[in-house]
UniProtKB/TrEMBL annotation, chain A:
Keyword S-adenosyl-L-methionine attached: no
Membrane topology per record: Peripheral membrane protein
Compartments in which it is found: Cell inner membrane
Annotated family: Belongs to the ABC transporter superfamily.
Keywords: ATP-binding, Nucleotide-binding, Transport
Domain ABC transporter: 13-247
Taxonomy, superkingdom: Bacteria
Presence of the UniProt keyword Transport in the record: yes
SUPFAM superfamilies registered for this protein in UniProt: P-loop containing nucleoside triphosphate hydrolases
InterPro entries on file: AAA+_ATPase, ABC_ATPase_HisP-typ, ABC_transporter-like_ATP-bd, ABC_transporter-like_CS, MetN_ABC_transporter-like, P-loop_NTPase
Protein name, per record: Amino acid ABC transporter ATP-binding protein
GO terms for MF: ATP binding
Main location: membrane
Automatic annotation (TrEMBL), chain B:
Keywords: Amino-acid transport, Cell membrane, Membrane, Transmembrane, Transmembrane helix, Transport
Organism: Kushneria aurantia
Family indicated by similarity: Belongs to the binding-protein-dependent transport system permease family. HisMQ subfamily.
Residue stretches making up the ABC transmembrane type-1 domain: 162-356
PROSITE patterns: ABC_TM1
UniProt cross-references to Pfam families, sorted A to Z: BPD_transp_1 (PF00528)
Locations listed in the record: Cell inner membrane; Cell membrane
Record-annotated membrane-spanning stretches: 36-56, 101-119, 131-151, 163-185, 197-221, 233-250, 294-318, 330-348
Membrane topology label: Multi-pass membrane protein
Name of the protein: Amino acid ABC transporter permease
Length: 253, 367
């Protein structure tokens, strides 16, 4: 297939001169970012620097005002069909899990397969169970989210996102609402996912995770990308004074 | 200095202590836990007996139940003959006596449909809902009103009594809830035009009393509609009642929508679900569950307020009971009439309320 080789050259996610304002507040300023297929990117930066806003623009949970976003070859427009097409290619995991509390774990995982991908329920359940198996929570499939621990809920949320077979996974501080003993079980799942070659954009302050899986770490401040480097370089030899200050704050206590 | 302690053996789990204490234990804990409480319990019990006993004597022990006319009431207690002698009118109004079997069939069908939908164990819920939405209303209309397939027409002005009350209440509930949900969604829409229309609609209907609505529907509407285009009076009243209550329903539902964190809708968006899927599959099930008390409260008020149709000359349950009060043959039995009316309204409303509590418990998924 000649198209396949063309596709592997084209970036999975690309943002060109992306700008966004909340009212008069300029949250994202001239963001240029390309994520290749299979690349793992960690985004970090101080609170309020626009990290969440940045990755939420990728699946249009936030609307940008200027610039261009392309995901898997589909360029974002105002057209809701186009947006939904992009969303089918992008899985997202939230800080507060956002599982649907009125549905069981299995139903949470089947929802988009049945209603978006129009799969028969049996096939949907089968593939949901496969993903729940992978995040090691298949034995809880018939429980409601409210009956699970935070770490378990977050793993379900990852399985739910994977059920759509997305090309890119976005993580917005997936472990920062978790108790320390649960962080590892979620990070382990994410590391496995990274090793299987999933394209990932992950907002996190887990530096261990960044060192293990990230191809690139992006440091953001005041709505712009301040520094961008492989994890070893960025953590051991940060160039920008802002990065140095930030790292000394989160590493040096 | 704190002494160090190390447990050498872990404790095995034990059974929770038995909390069943029996009737005596319950009485002791709840009613006679201290001398003062015992005193209060006894005093209140005495008061209760003093109040309830005379009522029971009047309503049950000294009452007359069966008979044809007031002569049957001789024992000095309540004269339930007032109800029993006019029972058929109370149920059917002026519906032609030889056709009342048609109403009975509708009652039976209604009971079956409600049982099918309301009892969780009943199978084929989807088919039940389908039956309730299409064949049942058609059958009910053909039986109650007739006019097609050679079925004798019974015009709505002959309808009355409990049958009319239930018809109005049921149609108003079934109509106002979906309309209210649409209005609530519309009021939260990001489209300014849709939102504006919904806000205007809701605020208009919440701003006028139901009596005015009914009066306008029955008296003023015919003045403006072209002659020859003659909507049935009951239908006009029904539409008015439905629109009126949909505004209250909308506000009840909206309070539920507002309580659902935006993360729910965002997560559904991120999964690629479109607006209607997000609402129907994710947001509304949660929001409606939260506002069951509010919806049922509205249902209950709606049910009781159906009695206002009296002022436009429809003889509902309460109106039929009251009409007897002016009957020279039955003068002086107002108390029996109102007590009976209260009892019937109470049975309907408290069953709705109990059922809603049951459903709320059933839908609880532990969060
Ligand atoms: N809906 C909104 N309306 C107005 N301002 C907003 C809105 N959402 C976010 N902001 C502002 O935009 C800025 C960036 O927010 P964002 O959530 O992207 O930060 P973040 O880097 O993810 O921070 P954190 O680490 O605290 O999650 C913040 O200053 C925030 O106050
Ligand atoms: Mg954030």
């Amino acid at each position: 297939m000649s198209e396949a080789s063309a596709q592997s050259e084209q970036p999975m996610v690309s943002m060109k001169r992306l700008n966004k304002w909340y009212g008069d507040f300029h949250v994202l300023r001239d963001i240029d970012l390309e994520v290749a297929k299979g690349e793992r990117i960690v985004v970090c930066g101080p609170s309020g620097s626009g990290k969440s806003t940045l990755i939420r623009c990728i699946n249009h949970l936030e609307e940008h005002q200027q610039g261009e976003i392309t995901v898997n070859g589909i360029t974002m427009t105002q057209d809701i069909k186009r947006i939904e097409q992009i969303r089918r290619n992008v899985g997202m995991v939230f800080q507060h899990f956002n599982l649907f509390p009125h549905l069981t774990v299995l139903e949470n995982c089947c929802l988009s397969q049945v209603w978006v991908q129009k799969k028969p329920r049996r096939d949907a359940e089968k593939s949901a169970m496969e993903y729940l198996e992978r995040v090691r929570i298949a034995n809880q499939a018939h429980k409601y989210p409210g009956q699970l621990s935070g770490g378990q809920q977050q793993r379900v949320a990852i399985a739910r996102a994977l059920c759509m077979r997305p090309e890119v996974m976005l993580f917005d501080e997936p472990t920062s609402a978790l108790d320390p003993e649960m962080i590892k079980e979620v990070l382990d799942v994410m590391i496995e996912l990274a090793q299987e070659g999933m394209t990932m954009l992950c907002v996190t302050h887990e530096m261990g995770f960044a060192r293990t899986v990230a191809d690139r770490v992006i440091f953001m401040d005041e709505g712009q990308i301040v520094e961008e480097a492989p994890p070893e370089t960025l953590f051991n030899d940060p160039q920008s004074p802002r990065t140095q200050e930030f790292l000394s704050q989160i590493l040096g206590h | 200095m704190a002494a160090t302690q190390v447990r050498s053996e872990m404790l095995a789990p034990r059974k929770a202590p038995d909390r069943r204490t029996g009737l005596v234990g319950w009485l002791r804990a709840n009613l006679f836990s201290s001398p003062l409480n015992s005193l209060v319990t006894l005093a209140l019990a005495a008061l209760l007996v003093r109040l309830i006993w005379p009522f029971l004597e009047w309503a049950l022990f000294n009452a007359n139940f069966l008979g044809e006319s007031r002569e049957a009431c001789s024992s000095g207690g309540a004269c339930w003959v007032y109800i029993s002698a006019r029972f058929e009118t109370i149920i059917y109004g002026f519906y032609p006596p030889e056709l009342r079997w048609r109403v009975n069939i509708v009652f039976v069908l209604l009971a079956l449909v409600i049982a099918w939908l309301a009892i969780p164990r009943m199978p084929f819920k989807k088919w039940g809902a389908l039956c309730a939405l299409i064949p049942f209303p058609i059958a009910a209309f053909l039986l109650l009103h007739g006019g097609y397939f050679g079925i004798t027409t019974v015009p709505t002005r002959d309808w009355g009594g409990l049958m009319l009350t239930i018809t109005i209440a049921l149609l108003a509930m079934v109509g106002s809830l979906p309309l209210g949900i649409m209005l609530a969604l519309g009021r939260r829409s990001t489209m300014p035009f849709v939102r504006g229309v919904c806000v205007l609609f809701i605020e208009f209907w919440r701003g006028v009393p139901l009596i005015t609505v009914l009066f306008m529907a029955s008296v003023m509407l015919p003045l403006f509609t072209p002659s020859g285009f003659d909507l049935d009076k009951l239908l006009r009243a029904l539409i008015g009642i439905m629109l009126f209550w949909s505004a209250y329903m909308a506000e009840a539902v909206r309070s539920g929508l507002q309580a659902i964190p935006s993360g729910q809708s965002e997560a559904a968006s991120a999964l690629g679900l479109g607006y209607w899927h997000r609402m129907i599959l994710v947001v509304l099930p949660q929001a409606l569950k939260l506002v069951i008390p509010g919806i049922v409260n509205t249902f209950i008020v709606l049910f009781m307020d159906t009695s206002l149709v009296l002022i436009i000359g429809l003889f509902d349950f309460l109106a039929v009971i009251r009409s007897g009060l002016n009957d020279p043959e039955w003068l002086g039995y107002a108390i029996e009439g109102y007590v009976f009316a209260a009892l019937v309204y109470w049975i309907f409303c408290s069953s709705m309320s109990r059922y809603s509590q049951y459903i709320e418990r059933r839908l609880h998924t532990g969060h």
